[in-house]
Amino acid sequence: MIVHNSYSRRLFLQKIAAGSAALAGGISRLQASSASIIPLREPAKPVAANDRIRLATIGMGIIGFIDTETALRVPGVELVAAADLYDGRRARVNEVFGKNVATTRDYREILSRSDVDAVIISTPDHWHARLSIEAMNAGKHVYCEKPMVQKITDGAAVIEAQRKTKRVFQVGSQCVSSLLHEKAKELFKAGAIGELNTVEASWKRNSAIGAWQYSIPPDASPQTIDWERFLGDAPERPFEAMRFFRWRNYSDYGTGIPGDLYVHLFSGIHHVLGSHGPGQIAASGGLRYWKDGRDVPDVVWGLFDYAKSDNHPGFTMALSTNFIDGSENEAGTRFIGSEGVMTIGWNSVKVARRGIYREKTEDVVEGYNSVRTFAKEMRDKFAEQLRAQTGAAYSRPALEGTTEYKVPEDYDDRLDHFHNFFAAIREGKAITEDASYGLRAAAPALLTNTSYAEKRIITWDAEKMQVV
Length: 468
What we know:
single chain; alpha/beta; Rossmann fold; Dihydrodipicolinate Reductase, domain 2; 3 domains; six-stranded parallel beta sheet; 14 helices; 17 strands; disordered N terminus
């Protein structure tokens, strides 16, 4: 697997990129490398002052701030409002983005504003479907963080709202807009690894923050937090600051490891392969280390069976996540085929070409294998037959070498994803991750949780988007 840098370093790089004029329009200076550099996209064209897209963000937690800062790097985007249920975050919005940005606890005030064209939804997962539908019905374009829904049964309503309102709807699994995944898609389609048989992917973390032990401010209380609105349709319970700030740890509000991380992997893998999803899902795991009150596992392994399609002959996929891995944080996806292996890491796509091992003719006859169990007469006949079939002796093809394609370390696929979102609003360009795509990525992740909880194999119809 490909080792990636720490979460904090990645944020640091994003901060640098956000403040650099050299990165305007999503273009970065190329870094010297022995690998081939993937050509970056053309910078966005300047936007007239009267053609600005006015943006609001609902949910100003960690990703809410990152999404907002990234969106504002796209030319012609202006933040006009933000909503959050914690007073301190709304105060921070005005510190970072200016006092002219309107803030509120009530998201409905944002949806009623005539000066808001689009919204980012970066709330706990159990609010995603409801907010997306209400926002589109209010005439707003929507960028909704992954997973698109907390419950699969809500997916059809989101898809219908997008169809009915004709609003632009983008799910925030940014690897779908990544240059790396686009290059991997091109390589796979060209037959770089032959016939696909297996996909392996992992996302491992070895830090408290990586395991969702987010910071809790000293002033957290029912006075500074709108607890009832946070609960929404979740079960009633007394105020608990840990549940509010570490909501990913609880199945009432989040979707566990699969909803947080597997959905990214599904999104990217489906993009590379042109697949709609697996047909069968099985999972195992447990709560091994972070016994801090959470009710979701910190170790999850999933096995997924993909049926034959026009794009591949059918394959098995294995996903794994461990929140106390004992090594540096790492993530990567390996596509294993009959002629090689393609690996997607944080900064590169690598293809190692390699054929299937074939023993030399004499090794087959004399080697340690089933031929040794034949009677001598049959051994001689087999050897004669094998030589007639194969001609000259042959063996495993030499490794043809590893080809690597890189982007600069500070390349930000999230920025490309927002470029796509705003281009769809302005120019009517096709969206990369609409509601149907979002559900097909979210559903197998959510069904991983179901398989883990119920200890059974789940069957999913990815075409009809239904549990069988």
